[in-house]
Amino acid sequence: MEKYSEPERIYAYQYKSVSHSLFDKVFRYWLNYAFRFIPPAMSANLLSMTGNLGSWFALILLVVLGDRVDLPHHRIVFALASFSVFFYHTVDNLDGRQAKRAGSCGPLGEFVDHWFDSFNVFFFPLGAIAAFPVIPLSWGIAIIILAGIADWLALREVMKTNVMYFGPVSTDEGIFVYWALLFFISILGYDFWAAPLPGIGIPPIGIVVFGVGLNFIYQIFRVLITYRFMGLREILVESLYYIPIILWIVATAPVLGERFALISGLLAIGFTGSRHVGDLLRVRLTGLALPRFYPDLAICLLFMLSVLFVNAIILPLPAWLLLFPMVVLFVDTAHALVLQFMRTVRRVYECLGVTLFGTSPERAVAVEPVIQK
Predict the structure, then answer these.
(1) Is residue 368 included in any domain, yes or no?
(2) CA gap 78, 61 in Å, rounded
(3) Side-chain half-sphere exposure of 90, counting CA atoms within 13 A
(4) pLDDT digits (tens, 9 = 90+) for 277-315
(5) How many distinct structural domains can be found in the chain?
């Protein structure tokens, strides 16, 4: 049974988006044109969910084919991935306009938008990591963890201020850099980005990933310092959940293959972070009491540690048994995320009469006429 610390919070919903994004000043001309093709009657949430198909497709494409340099038309893989991310980026900027046009702005629309964005936060760097095994394992782990923490803190800031702030260099710029990077990989070729640069020994893709990591660190410390390290304790607790997964990556890499172990582990870290972000969104939007402990997650991770302990101390285990705890973790996390989504949809419907793909005008929430990001 879920507990709500502020059950009336959903009726006092407020949200404002303030954007000083430099890229947005140019991108808006394309958005104004593209918005003409959105059917007026289309649900904003359906539009948002459709756009996310682009980011999911790009990740799958890069994980499966990104490092297959033996393919005769390998550059097409990155061209398709670039177009898919561009499609997502466009639609992600149009769902708020559609919600405003349809008069359906409210807590459910913000939840759907930011809940899916919590996946994209780690999907994008993971795509580059999967496509370029030249990126060190430790860098990959650090980037995905930093991405999750930065996203959690950004939404914690929104919970405190009811304002989503986009600075001159924001997520819009970050997504633009990603799809532009994929496009230029298709133009300049894979080898150009993967080959170490003379004198420094780091490939161009490594420099890009390192820059992304620095940006995440900057965003983390900006929020922590601005709000006097608000949320630091929660971040430290959340980080404890990642330790068994990191140990699993390191321990299973020699048996399962470094690339397979790394991608599996990073997906587990990313989806675990998304679960925390989803609950934080529900705290702000529906008044849910913030969970301090996840018993099911703890059990899965203890099981993972037990298998690793047996493998390291008692006797080497077969590959399938080493993989089994990760499968259990994926199933549990997927189940938790689905429940999280459905319970939020049900809560909004029970309180406001608003459905996932529609709205009840007489009970819709009044919000400032601003564009959801």
Answers:
(1) no
(2) 8
(3) 19
(4) 999 999 999 999 988 889 999 999 999 999 999 999 999
(5) 1
